[in-house]
From TrEMBL:
Subunit relationships: Homotetramer.
Annotated protein name in UniProt: Mitochondrial uncoupling protein 4
Family (UniProt): Belongs to the mitochondrial carrier (TC 2.A.29) family.
Pfam families recorded: Mito_carr (PF00153)
Role according to the record: Facilitates proton transport across the inner mitochondrial membrane and may dissipate excessive proton gradient associated with oxidative and metabolic stress at neuronal synapses. Regulates glutamate-induced proton conductance in astrocytes, shifting the energy metabolism toward aerobic glycolysis and lactate transfer to neurons for ATP synthesis. Can transport chloride ions with lower efficiency. The transport mechanism remains to be elucidated.
Keywords: Membrane, Mitochondrion, Mitochondrion inner membrane, Repeat, Transmembrane, Transmembrane helix, Transport
Catalytic reactions on record: chloride(in) = chloride(out)
Solcar repeat residue numbers: 20-114, 124-216, 225-316
Keyword Disulfide bond in annotation: no
Organism field: Cyanistes caeruleus
Compartment(s): Mitochondrion inner membrane
Cellular component terms (Gene Ontology): mitochondrial inner membrane
Protein backbone atom coordinates (compact mmCIF):
# COMPACT_ATOMS: atom_id res chain seq x y z
CA UNK A 1 0.00 0.00 0.00
CA UNK A 2 1.39 3.39 -1.01
CA UNK A 3 1.86 6.15 1.59
CA UNK A 4 -1.02 8.13 0.06
CA UNK A 5 -3.37 5.15 0.25
CA UNK A 6 -2.22 4.36 3.75
CA UNK A 7 -2.95 7.93 4.83
CA UNK A 8 -6.45 7.78 3.30
CA UNK A 9 -7.17 4.58 5.25
CA UNK A 10 -6.46 6.28 8.59
CA UNK A 11 -9.39 7.47 10.73
CA UNK A 12 -10.32 11.14 10.28
CA UNK A 13 -8.95 12.24 13.71
CA UNK A 14 -5.54 10.84 12.77
CA UNK A 15 -5.54 12.37 9.29
CA UNK A 16 -6.56 15.84 10.45
CA UNK A 17 -5.97 15.91 14.23
CA UNK A 18 -6.19 19.67 14.76
CA UNK A 19 -9.27 20.12 12.57
CA UNK A 20 -10.95 17.20 14.36
CA UNK A 21 -10.17 18.62 17.80
CA UNK A 22 -11.45 22.03 16.69
CA UNK A 23 -14.77 20.54 15.53
CA UNK A 24 -15.18 18.37 18.65
CA UNK A 25 -14.48 21.22 21.07
CA UNK A 26 -16.82 23.53 19.13
CA UNK A 27 -19.66 20.98 19.39
CA UNK A 28 -19.12 20.51 23.13
CA UNK A 29 -19.00 24.29 23.66
CA UNK A 30 -22.24 24.82 21.72
CA UNK A 31 -24.05 22.32 23.96
CA UNK A 32 -22.69 23.91 27.15
CA UNK A 33 -23.53 27.43 25.91
CA UNK A 34 -27.17 26.68 25.14
CA UNK A 35 -27.72 24.90 28.48
CA UNK A 36 -26.28 27.74 30.59
CA UNK A 37 -27.03 30.83 28.47
CA UNK A 38 -29.86 32.28 30.68
CA UNK A 39 -27.33 32.67 33.51
CA UNK A 40 -25.02 34.59 31.17
CA UNK A 41 -27.83 36.97 30.26
CA UNK A 42 -28.65 37.49 33.95
CA UNK A 43 -24.99 38.16 34.70
CA UNK A 44 -24.75 40.77 31.93
CA UNK A 45 -27.85 42.62 33.18
CA UNK A 46 -26.51 42.65 36.75
CA UNK A 47 -23.15 44.02 35.62
CA UNK A 48 -24.85 46.92 33.78
CA UNK A 49 -27.13 47.69 36.73
CA UNK A 50 -26.38 51.05 38.35
CA UNK A 51 -23.63 51.99 35.93
CA UNK A 52 -22.07 55.07 37.55
CA UNK A 53 -20.70 56.68 34.39
CA UNK A 54 -24.09 56.59 32.65
CA UNK A 55 -25.82 57.89 35.76
CA UNK A 56 -23.41 60.83 35.92
CA UNK A 57 -24.18 61.50 32.27
CA UNK A 58 -27.81 61.97 33.18
CA UNK A 59 -29.28 58.93 31.44
CA UNK A 60 -30.82 57.69 34.64
CA UNK A 61 -31.10 60.94 36.51
CA UNK A 62 -34.13 61.46 38.66
CA UNK A 63 -35.14 57.83 39.04
CA UNK A 64 -33.86 55.03 41.21
CA UNK A 65 -32.42 52.03 39.46
CA UNK A 66 -33.91 48.67 40.45
CA UNK A 67 -31.19 46.72 42.23
CA UNK A 68 -32.07 43.04 41.96
CA UNK A 69 -30.29 39.85 42.81
CA UNK A 70 -29.67 37.00 40.43
CA UNK A 71 -32.99 35.17 40.86
CA UNK A 72 -35.09 38.35 40.87
CA UNK A 73 -33.33 39.57 37.73
CA UNK A 74 -33.94 36.28 35.92
CA UNK A 75 -37.59 36.18 37.01
CA UNK A 76 -38.07 39.83 36.01
CA UNK A 77 -36.68 39.15 32.53
CA UNK A 78 -39.04 36.19 32.12
CA UNK A 79 -42.08 38.12 33.43
CA UNK A 80 -41.47 41.49 31.79
CA UNK A 81 -39.91 40.41 28.50
CA UNK A 82 -40.92 36.77 28.07
CA UNK A 83 -39.17 33.45 28.76
CA UNK A 84 -37.69 33.36 25.25
CA UNK A 85 -35.76 36.55 26.03
CA UNK A 86 -33.61 34.52 28.45
CA UNK A 87 -31.94 33.19 25.29
CA UNK A 88 -31.67 36.59 23.56
CA UNK A 89 -28.21 36.78 22.02
CA UNK A 90 -27.73 33.00 22.14
CA UNK A 91 -27.02 32.71 18.40
CA UNK A 92 -23.93 35.00 18.39
CA UNK A 93 -22.90 33.38 21.69
CA UNK A 94 -22.86 29.96 20.04
CA UNK A 95 -21.01 31.37 17.01
CA UNK A 96 -18.55 32.96 19.39
CA UNK A 97 -17.84 29.69 21.17
CA UNK A 98 -17.39 27.81 17.91
CA UNK A 99 -14.53 30.20 17.10
CA UNK A 100 -13.28 30.93 20.63
CA UNK A 101 -13.35 27.42 22.10
CA UNK A 102 -12.17 25.76 18.91
CA UNK A 103 -9.13 28.03 18.65
CA UNK A 104 -8.24 28.03 22.35
CA UNK A 105 -8.44 24.24 22.76
CA UNK A 106 -6.35 23.48 19.68
CA UNK A 107 -3.85 26.22 20.59
CA UNK A 108 -3.49 25.02 24.19
CA UNK A 109 -2.86 21.41 23.24
CA UNK A 110 -0.33 22.47 20.61
CA UNK A 111 1.50 24.73 23.08
CA UNK A 112 1.37 22.13 25.85
CA UNK A 113 2.51 19.13 23.82
CA UNK A 114 4.80 20.65 21.17
CA UNK A 115 6.09 24.01 22.41
CA UNK A 116 6.19 23.63 26.20
CA UNK A 117 7.05 19.94 25.99
CA UNK A 118 4.80 18.02 28.36
CA UNK A 119 5.95 14.40 28.70
CA UNK A 120 3.28 11.72 28.92
CA UNK A 121 2.89 10.33 32.44
CA UNK A 122 4.94 13.10 34.08
CA UNK A 123 3.87 16.16 36.07
CA UNK A 124 3.59 19.39 34.08
CA UNK A 125 5.00 22.54 35.76
CA UNK A 126 2.23 24.92 36.81
CA UNK A 127 3.93 27.96 35.28
CA UNK A 128 3.95 26.24 31.88
CA UNK A 129 0.27 25.42 32.20
CA UNK A 130 -0.44 29.06 33.10
CA UNK A 131 1.52 30.34 30.07
CA UNK A 132 -0.26 27.89 27.79
CA UNK A 133 -3.72 28.62 29.18
CA UNK A 134 -3.41 32.41 29.11
CA UNK A 135 -1.88 32.44 25.62
CA UNK A 136 -4.52 30.10 24.19
CA UNK A 137 -7.36 32.12 25.74
CA UNK A 138 -6.01 35.43 24.47
CA UNK A 139 -5.54 34.14 20.91
CA UNK A 140 -8.97 32.48 20.81
CA UNK A 141 -10.75 35.54 22.16
CA UNK A 142 -9.08 37.93 19.74
CA UNK A 143 -10.51 35.99 16.81
CA UNK A 144 -13.94 35.71 18.46
CA UNK A 145 -14.19 39.32 19.71
CA UNK A 146 -16.67 40.56 17.02
CA UNK A 147 -19.19 37.83 17.92
CA UNK A 148 -18.80 38.64 21.62
CA UNK A 149 -19.51 42.33 20.92
CA UNK A 150 -22.74 41.43 19.11
CA UNK A 151 -23.77 39.04 21.89
CA UNK A 152 -23.33 41.63 24.67
CA UNK A 153 -25.19 44.38 22.78
CA UNK A 154 -28.08 42.08 21.82
CA UNK A 155 -28.43 40.94 25.43
CA UNK A 156 -29.20 44.55 26.42
CA UNK A 157 -31.93 45.08 23.80
CA UNK A 158 -34.73 43.80 26.05
CA UNK A 159 -33.74 46.29 28.74
CA UNK A 160 -33.71 49.16 26.22
CA UNK A 161 -37.23 48.23 25.10
CA UNK A 162 -38.55 48.34 28.67
CA UNK A 163 -36.90 51.74 29.22
CA UNK A 164 -38.70 53.10 26.16
CA UNK A 165 -35.54 53.42 24.09
CA UNK A 166 -35.56 52.43 20.41
CA UNK A 167 -34.13 49.02 19.57
CA UNK A 168 -30.73 49.16 17.92
CA UNK A 169 -30.79 45.78 16.20
CA UNK A 170 -33.36 43.45 14.62
CA UNK A 171 -31.18 40.38 14.70
CA UNK A 172 -27.62 39.11 14.75
CA UNK A 173 -26.82 39.83 11.11
CA UNK A 174 -28.36 43.31 11.34
CA UNK A 175 -26.23 43.97 14.42
CA UNK A 176 -23.06 42.93 12.58
CA UNK A 177 -23.90 45.15 9.60
CA UNK A 178 -24.86 48.15 11.74
CA UNK A 179 -21.72 47.96 13.88
CA UNK A 180 -19.64 47.58 10.71
CA UNK A 181 -21.33 50.56 9.00
CA UNK A 182 -21.00 52.84 12.04
CA UNK A 183 -17.52 51.93 13.23
CA UNK A 184 -15.93 50.13 10.31
CA UNK A 185 -13.97 46.92 10.69
CA UNK A 186 -12.26 48.46 13.71
CA UNK A 187 -15.66 48.83 15.37
CA UNK A 188 -16.14 45.04 15.35
CA UNK A 189 -13.14 44.78 17.66
CA UNK A 190 -14.39 47.46 20.09
CA UNK A 191 -13.44 46.40 23.59
CA UNK A 192 -11.06 43.69 22.37
CA UNK A 193 -8.34 44.65 24.87
CA UNK A 194 -10.40 43.96 28.05
CA UNK A 195 -11.94 41.04 26.17
CA UNK A 196 -8.54 39.43 25.60
CA UNK A 197 -7.43 40.28 29.14
CA UNK A 198 -10.54 38.60 30.51
CA UNK A 199 -10.08 35.54 28.31
CA UNK A 200 -6.48 35.14 29.45
CA UNK A 201 -7.61 35.18 33.10
CA UNK A 202 -10.56 32.86 32.43
CA UNK A 203 -8.36 30.31 30.72
CA UNK A 204 -5.76 30.53 33.46
CA UNK A 205 -8.65 29.45 35.68
CA UNK A 206 -10.36 27.06 33.27
CA UNK A 207 -7.81 25.34 31.03
CA UNK A 208 -4.88 25.56 33.44
CA UNK A 209 -6.88 24.42 36.48
CA UNK A 210 -8.68 21.59 34.68
CA UNK A 211 -5.51 20.23 33.10
CA UNK A 212 -3.43 20.58 36.28
CA UNK A 213 -6.04 19.12 38.64
CA UNK A 214 -6.89 16.24 36.30
CA UNK A 215 -3.30 15.13 35.83
CA UNK A 216 -2.50 15.66 39.51
CA UNK A 217 -5.36 13.32 40.41
CA UNK A 218 -4.28 10.74 37.83
CA UNK A 219 -0.65 10.79 39.00
CA UNK A 220 -1.16 11.04 42.77
CA UNK A 221 -4.46 9.30 43.59
CA UNK A 222 -6.22 6.06 42.75
CA UNK A 223 -8.65 7.86 40.43
CA UNK A 224 -8.58 6.86 36.77
CA UNK A 225 -9.36 8.86 33.63
CA UNK A 226 -13.16 8.68 33.83
CA UNK A 227 -16.21 10.88 34.43
CA UNK A 228 -15.51 11.18 38.18
CA UNK A 229 -12.09 12.68 37.56
CA UNK A 230 -13.54 14.94 34.88
CA UNK A 231 -16.28 16.17 37.26
CA UNK A 232 -13.86 16.99 40.08
CA UNK A 233 -11.47 18.77 37.71
CA UNK A 234 -14.25 20.78 36.04
CA UNK A 235 -15.69 21.85 39.43
CA UNK A 236 -12.30 23.26 40.44
CA UNK A 237 -11.80 24.97 37.08
CA UNK A 238 -15.26 26.59 37.19
CA UNK A 239 -14.67 28.14 40.62
CA UNK A 240 -11.18 29.46 39.87
CA UNK A 241 -12.29 30.81 36.49
CA UNK A 242 -15.23 32.69 38.05
CA UNK A 243 -13.00 34.35 40.69
CA UNK A 244 -10.52 35.51 38.05
CA UNK A 245 -13.09 36.36 35.40
CA UNK A 246 -15.67 38.55 37.12
CA UNK A 247 -13.73 41.87 37.50
CA UNK A 248 -12.45 41.70 33.92
CA UNK A 249 -15.91 40.70 32.71
CA UNK A 250 -17.55 43.71 34.37
CA UNK A 251 -15.07 46.06 32.66
CA UNK A 252 -15.44 44.25 29.32
CA UNK A 253 -19.24 44.34 29.43
CA UNK A 254 -19.40 48.06 30.20
CA UNK A 255 -16.89 49.02 27.52
CA UNK A 256 -18.60 46.92 24.86
CA UNK A 257 -22.09 48.22 25.71
CA UNK A 258 -21.24 51.93 25.93
CA UNK A 259 -22.51 54.34 23.25
CA UNK A 260 -19.99 55.35 20.59
CA UNK A 261 -19.37 58.29 18.27
CA UNK A 262 -19.16 58.05 14.48
CA UNK A 263 -15.48 57.14 14.68
CA UNK A 264 -16.26 54.19 16.94
CA UNK A 265 -14.77 55.80 20.05
CA UNK A 266 -16.48 55.19 23.38
CA UNK A 267 -18.36 58.10 24.99
CA UNK A 268 -18.16 56.89 28.61
CA UNK A 269 -14.73 55.26 28.96
CA UNK A 270 -11.39 55.95 27.30
CA UNK A 271 -9.89 52.54 28.03
CA UNK A 272 -10.28 49.46 30.19
CA UNK A 273 -8.14 51.10 32.89
CA UNK A 274 -10.36 54.21 32.82
CA UNK A 275 -13.46 52.02 33.12
CA UNK A 276 -11.88 50.13 36.05
CA UNK A 277 -11.04 53.38 37.86
CA UNK A 278 -14.46 54.95 37.26
CA UNK A 279 -16.25 51.81 38.42
CA UNK A 280 -14.25 51.50 41.66
CA UNK A 281 -14.43 55.25 42.43
CA UNK A 282 -18.13 55.54 41.66
CA UNK A 283 -19.47 52.26 43.02
CA UNK A 284 -16.78 50.74 45.24
CA UNK A 285 -14.39 47.83 44.82
CA UNK A 286 -17.05 45.17 45.26
CA UNK A 287 -18.84 46.51 42.18
CA UNK A 288 -16.15 44.62 40.24
CA UNK A 289 -17.79 41.45 41.51
CA UNK A 290 -21.28 42.35 40.37
CA UNK A 291 -22.70 39.23 38.85
CA UNK A 292 -20.20 36.92 40.61
CA UNK A 293 -22.88 34.48 41.78
CA UNK A 294 -24.44 33.99 38.32
CA UNK A 295 -20.94 33.97 36.82
CA UNK A 296 -19.91 31.16 39.17
CA UNK A 297 -23.25 29.39 38.85
CA UNK A 298 -22.84 29.55 35.10
CA UNK A 299 -19.14 28.67 34.99
CA UNK A 300 -19.63 25.60 37.20
CA UNK A 301 -22.32 23.91 35.06
CA UNK A 302 -20.71 25.23 31.85
CA UNK A 303 -17.38 23.65 32.77
CA UNK A 304 -19.10 20.45 33.86
CA UNK A 305 -21.18 20.12 30.68
CA UNK A 306 -18.32 21.16 28.40
CA UNK A 307 -15.58 18.98 29.83
CA UNK A 308 -17.77 15.90 30.22
CA UNK A 309 -19.13 16.31 26.68
CA UNK A 310 -15.71 17.06 25.22
CA UNK A 311 -13.99 14.10 26.89
CA UNK A 312 -16.79 11.73 25.89
CA UNK A 313 -16.86 12.96 22.28
CA UNK A 314 -13.07 12.53 22.04
CA UNK A 315 -13.35 9.00 23.40
CA UNK A 316 -16.15 8.08 20.98
CA UNK A 317 -14.20 9.47 18.01
CA UNK A 318 -11.00 7.68 18.95
CA UNK A 319 -9.09 10.79 20.01
CA UNK A 320 -6.84 10.53 23.06
CA UNK A 321 -8.04 12.06 26.33
CA UNK A 322 -7.35 15.78 26.85
Amino acid sequence: MSPAEEEKSLPLPERWPRASKFALSACAAAVAELVTFPLDLTKTRLQMQGEAAERRGGAAAGRALPHRGMLRTALAIAQEEGVRKLWQGATPAVYRHIVYTGVRMVTYEHLRDSVLGRAEGESFPLWKAVVGGMSAGAIGQFFASPTDLVKVQMQMEGKRKLEGKPLRFWGMHHAFLKILSEGGVRGLWAGWVPNVQRAALVNMGDLTTYDSVKHFLLLNTTLVDNSVTHCVSSACSGLVAAVLETPADVVKTRIMNQPRDKQGRGLLYKSSVDCLIQTVQGEGFMSLYKGFVPTWMRMAPWSLVFWLTYEQIRQMCGVTSF
